[in-house]
Amino acid sequence: MAIELGLIGGTGLYAFPGLxxxxxxxxxxxYGAPSGAYVCGELDGHRVAFLAxxxxxxxxxxxxxxxxxxxxxxxxxxxRRVLGINAVGGIRYDMGPRAxxxxxxxxxxxxxxxxxxxxxxxxxxEHIDFSHPYTPQFRSRLLAAAAQAGIELIDGGCYGATQGxxxxxxxxxxxxxxxxxxxxxxxGMPEAALARELGLEYACVALxxxxxxxxxxxxxxxxxxIHAHLAAATARIPALVRALLAMNxx
Length: 250
Ligand code: HPA
Prior knowledge:
- The structure is a single chain.
- This protein is α/β, with parallel strands linked by helices.
- It has a single domain, classed as Rossmann fold (3-Layer(aba) Sandwich), CATH 3.40.50.1580.
- Helices cover 25% and strands 24% of the residues.
- The protein has 6 helices and 11 strands.
- Strands 1, 2, 3, 4, 5, 6, 7, 8, 9, 10 and 11 form an 11-stranded mixed β-sheet that branches.
- The radius of gyration is 17 Å and the shape is globular.
- It binds hypoxanthine.
- Hypoxanthine (HPA) binds next to strand 5, strand 10 and strand 11.
């Protein structure tokens, strides 16, 4: 049975609850090792594969994730559709802690990452259209599934991808806001672009863990609060994924 959905768990999501008949699949890729084993199993009779982006014990920093291997591994598994689950900071007034957002745009501020499968000497360079970085139809299905299941998702927003692993300064967030970013996270890119290069459907559900620097009332960001907010937001992901699978993605 083909894998209907690939899942990449971010900070706070290192194993997918409720996966039945799960097997761990180690994959070697032409781009090196992925972040860990792909855990393949069934959710309500649908085949899915889960990968912990930062490793199962959170040992891989955002700028050290082998995004190419991770995305390529899904393709090697025969998976045509990947949902990225990413912790973020909220910038827009309605994207406070614990909100779930399905962004529709990206601005990439990262540097020094391998951003393309064409980034190999002698390989023909392939350019991709990236006007709409997330697969529109996949986003729509995710939003429809959430609506059906009564799970609140914010439709749209611009994801600013920063380098990390530190959080941003107040001035950096002011700049992101001026640029039009609504959310800030460290792992949204180059994952989305690599998925597009391979022709995979890709969407993101962003879990707001904190107000980005300077956006909330507090003068500093509490790491403990980040974890508490993330745990609350992450608890809504299994129901969302089950609702998505119930749409028979094919
Ligand atoms: N900035 C960048 N990445 C993040 C944040 C943040 O404030 N919170 C969670 N991931």
